[in-house]
Design brief:
The N and C termini lie close together (10 Å). The chain is 43% helix and 18% strand. The chain is of the alpha/beta class.
Length: 270
């Protein structure tokens, strides 16, 4: 039986509210040992903690403030220090249960970010969360859309030594700067339709790769709800690119995840 760890998913998303039990059951049947549930904003922190308590030893919480915050379904803006201030008391309350701080990072997508002031606001939010992660001795679960190089540079400047860069959309040469810093990169099932992700995996050492689904996004098909059970699609495609067995990909990526998120080691036995 193959045993996987989904290092980055949004299991608290409303998309899963109606059939969460079935989704978790299918995840376990597909060989998942653990799901790392990441947050985007303070309003979902309690829901993530509740899910981790409902599915103990399987769903593990990561709390953090995403660089882009929704104002409405149609409108988003850069994260602000005020967003983080609202999140900090809840992070403090649940700090002993957390396996990482996340999802944090930078997102310089033009439709969200219109000026340098927005970018600076995101940087300040990320810097403060990097400090929190250090204080709590936790890794960072990192988003870096259209901002691969600035994100890696900022993490290095802040002395971050434990980080997962999820669904990295930058050039392989930029990712290799992260590899030199000891960072890991998680690959979603959308690799089967992303030439950029395929090129990335070709360059990255297997020892720096983890698996993720980013459920409900980044699935094998566009606009179709992604689920953690699709984790094997990532592993199979990586094995094809690397020319190694799926078993090897599973073994190495699971060990990588346990190394990066040491709290998982206490709860699960691959």
């Amino acid at each position: 039986m193959l045993r996987f760890i989904d290092c980055h998913c949004h299991i608290s998303a409303g998309d899963f509210d109606k059939d969460i039990d079935g989704v978790i059951e299918n995840s376990k049947k597909a060989g998942l040992l653990a799901l790392l549930a990441v947050a985007e904003h303070a309003a979902e922190f309690d829901k993530i903690i509740a899910l981790s308590q409902r599915f103990p030893g399987f769903i593990f919480p990561c709390l953090g403030v995403h660089p882009v915050q929704a104002v409405s379904p149609e409108q988003s803006r850069a994260a602000s220090v005020q967003d983080l201030d609202a999140a900090l008391p809840i992070i403090e309350k649940y700090k002993d249960q957390l396996v990482a701080i996340g999802e944090v990072g930078l997102d310089f997508t033009p439709r969200f970010i219109s000026n340098e002031c927005d970018k600076e606001s995101q940087r300040q939010v990320l810097i403060r969360q990097a400090h929190i992660a250090k204080e709590l001795d936790l890794p960072l679960n990192v988003h870096s859309r259209s901002a691969g190089r600035p994100t890696i540079h900022l993490l290095k400047e802040q002395g971050v030594d434990k980080a997962l860069l999820h669904a990295f959309d930058g050039k392989p040469s930029v990712a290799m700067e992260g590899v030199k810093a000891g960072y890991f990169f998680s690959i979603p099932p959308s690799i089967i339709r992303s030439e950029q992700k395929q090129k990335l995996v070709k360059q990255l050492p297997l020892e720096n790769i983890c698996l993720e689904t980013d459920s409900p996004a980044l699935g094998p098909e566009k606009q179709v709800r992604n689920e953690p059970k699709n984790i094997s699609i990532s592993a199979e495609y990586i094995s094809k690119i690397k020319g190694v067995s799926v078993e090897k990909v599973m073994e190495v990526t699971t060990q990588n995840a346990l190394r990066l998120f040491p709290k998982l080691q206490l709860a699960i036995r691959p």
